[in-house]
Amino acid sequence: MTKYDCPVGFTCQDIDDAITDAEKASEYLDNAVVHINELIGKFGSLEALRDQNSTLRKWGEEMAEKVKDLENEIENLELEIENLNEEINSLKSK
Prior knowledge:
By secondary structure, the protein is mostly helical. It is built from one helix and no strands.
């Protein structure tokens, strides 16, 4: 290199490449933000579903408890019927 040679080569292509890379990165990030927002929206839907599931579970537990209570009541009534039938038979035989 002589003292009259340009110390730097052509840089326009390097600048163009850097701009293109920045634009691609910006587009990629924009798409990522869109996808993240979609996921956040789905999480909101999932949270609503979680609430509905909790309500349904609680209702099911309450129904199961009522079934147990009613089964006990049936058993008690069947015993009462049996006792009353025995009393009737006892009174008939007198």
